[in-house]
Write a structure and sequence with these properties.
About 65% of the residues lie in helices and about 0% in strands. The protein is mainly alpha-helical. The chain has one domain: Up-down Bundle (Amino acid/polyamine transporter I). Helix 5 (about 120-150) runs antiparallel to helix 13 and helix 13 crosses helix 14. It starts with 12 loop residues before the first helix and ends with a helix. InterPro entries: AA-permease/SLC12A_dom, Amino_acid_permease_CS, APC_YAT.
């Protein structure tokens, strides 16, 4: 299915309100079958508990447990704390915008299709392809990282990484055999372990900081590592700018709840719940943990650069080692291994659903849209697992260099995607108002409204500018090095190339895509809606349904609110 009807496929507001419109006429997104073009529909096997864990499970991984170590070394503890706090706020705003659109349009491909529909098909295609590429290339990286985790244990020394790559890939294949339900169950179990580990580290970090560990001869630490001779802000503003991309990479995966909407039994209920919990989880599992790490581990610790240290310089394991606690480093290394495999599991979901949705909408080879009777998008799953074989490249003599270039394809991608989601929400809200609708008719409203999306977009732009500055002038030099610049910023030129590629293709084969962007008055907000928002339902009925949902949400007063808050945290 192509996007040629994007600008003229909608009905006018009057016909829609009267219930006389045929919502399938010229539609861009199917109303009852969002997986159009596939042989079979994707199965709605994800439950509420799966969605809760996917919201955080796809995010907690190597970016938090390992990648944050680099951020501490270049930016210092205060820069890491503020950087992750700012980017975390941006992620929360993005998730609110995504939840509002996803509840209204719970379609496969989610935000990629929203950008195509509300902004520009060429920009949406570029974001979708680059997002898929990022997951395709991150998978072999995660597998290689898992091998490094395994080498922490003495029994694995001397064993070639290929002995671990094969069983790890086989495990991912087995998970895919069970379809989305298998993904959900595995993610639920692995995420639960990671969450318990994060809570445990918070308790341990407080004890270490207060001098409560007998084997730690540092005694009470307090804010020692934020003052002279240490520094809260290493490398000043330059170091602070270097933290943003690390933080964005660490949060990658939070948006997977949007992709999972098409395979969720009750998206109207579960998507908002998962999105609202993001704030609690970002604050606790990221910001608080990293604040404690910054308090108990000096940013200039020699263990960061030691080849023999546990988990390749993980600040979490270094914190345990500095406290002199035995056995626990090995246990936390196992947690990091679990986290890495959890992200690898998310890689297969993120890339496959994005590519299958693009194929179903005529923006990728049609054969990639195939879904079997058990709801598994087989061709794109095979493609993702084939990319997993790239983990063997790291075994070559110059494999590390090749790997760095592969990873450079995914460096900034998530900032472009999050900015695209915010822009799509801004455009959607404007089109919604132009067509005579009020916010009371929306099944779910973003807590921070359209201004939240503007702030999210602004933070994305500032983060991209900061990374451009760091790419030109890296912390510690050398300055103006072409190789270093493109390894840090290759995702930017790639996005421009993909955009121009589809725009050029559209100029010949898709005339409707020729304009630089879709005019607000031409945005079709009606096709593809479901449930209470679908055609034939009056504005009054939508308001009544949403009001009833709101009353149920607020029943029980302050006691229920506190209970729900505690439940969200746990």
């Amino acid at each position: 299915m192509s996007l040629e009807n994007e600008n003229n496929g909608g009905s006018n507001a009057a016909d829609y309100k009267s219930g006389t419109v045929d919502s399938t006429a010229g539609q861009q997104f199917p109303v009852d079958n969002p997986e159009a073009g596939a042989t079979n529909p994707l199965h709605k096997n994800l439950k509420g508990r799966h969605m809760q864990m996917i919201a955080i499970g796809g995010a907690i991984g190597a970016g938090l447990f390992i990648g944050s170590g680099t951020a501490f070394q270049t930016g210092g503890p205060a820069s890491v704390f503020l950087g992750f706090l700012i980017v975390g706020f941006m992620v929360y705003l993005m998730m609110q915008a995504l939840a509002e659109m996803t509840v209204l349009y719970p379609i496969n491909g989610a935000f990629t299709m929203y950008i195509c529909r509300f902004v520009d098909p060429s920009f949406g295609w570029a974001c979708g392809i680059e997002y898929a590429i990022s997951w395709l290339t991150v998978l072999p990286f995660e597998i290689s990282a898992a091998c490094n985790m395994i080498h922490f244990w003495p029994g694995s020394h001397g064993i070639n990484n290929s002995a671990w790559i094969v069983p790890l890939l086989v495990a991912l294949v087995v998970i895919q055999f069970f379809g989305v339900r298998g993904y959900g169950e595995v993610e639920f179990a692995l995420s639960l372990m990671k969450i318990l580990a994060c809570i445990g580290f918070i308790i341990l970090g407080i004890i270490i900081n207060c001098g409560g560990v007998p084997t730690d001869d540092r005694g009470y630490i307090g804010g020692r590592y934020w003052n002279d001779p240490y520094s809260a802000f290493l490398n000043g503003f330059h170091g602070f700018c270097s933290v943003f991309v690390t933080a964005a990479f660490a949060y990658t995966g939070t948006e997977l709840t949007g992709l999972a909407a098409a395979e969720t039994a009750n998206p109207r209920k579960e998507i908002p719940k998962a999105s609202n919990q993001v704030a609690w989880r970002i604050g606790i599992f990221y910001v608080v943990n990293l604040l404690l790490v910054g308090l108990i581990v000096p940013a200039n610790s020699p263990l960061y650069g030691s080849a023999t240290t546990a988990s390749q310089g993980s600040p979490f394991v270094i914190a345990i080692e500095l406290a002199g606690i035995k056995v626990l480093p090995s246990i936390f290394n196992a947690v990091i291994l679990i986290a890495v495999m959890s992200v690898a599991n998310s890689c297969t979901f993120g890339s496959t659903r994005t590519l299958q949705a693009l194929a179903a909408n005529g923006m990728f080879p049609k054969k990639m849209a195939y879904v079997d009777k058990k709801g598994r998008p087989i061709p794109v799953v095979i493609l993702q697992l084939l990319f997993g074989l790239l983990a063997f490249i790291n075994l070559a003599h110059n494999g590390g260099t090749i790997f760095n270039w592969l990873l450079s394809l995914s460096g900034l991608t998530i900032l472009f995607v999050y900015g695209g989601i915010a822009l799509a929400h801004i455009r959607f809200r404007k089109a919604w108002a132009i067509n005579g609708h009020t916010l009371d008719e929306l099944p779910y409203k973003a807590n921070c409204g359209v201004w939240g999306s503007w702030i999210c977009l602004l933070i994305c732009v500032l983060a991209l500018i900061a990374q451009f500055y760091v790419a030109l002038y890296p912390v510690g030099g050398p300055n103006l090095d072409a190789t270093n610049f493109f390894q840090l910023y290759l995702a930017g030129p790639l996005l421009i190339f993909l955009y121009l590629l589809w725009k050029g293709y559209s100029w010949i084969y898709e005339p409707a895509h020729r304009p630089l962007f879709i005019r607000t008055k031409d945005i079709d907000i009606y096709t593809g809606m479901r449930e209470i928002s679908s055609a034939g339902i009056s504005a009054e009925d939508r308001r009544a349904s949403n009001a009833e949902l709101g009353e149920k949400k607020h029943q029980g007063g302050a006691g229920a609110y506190i209970k729900n808050a505690i439940r969200n945290i746990i």
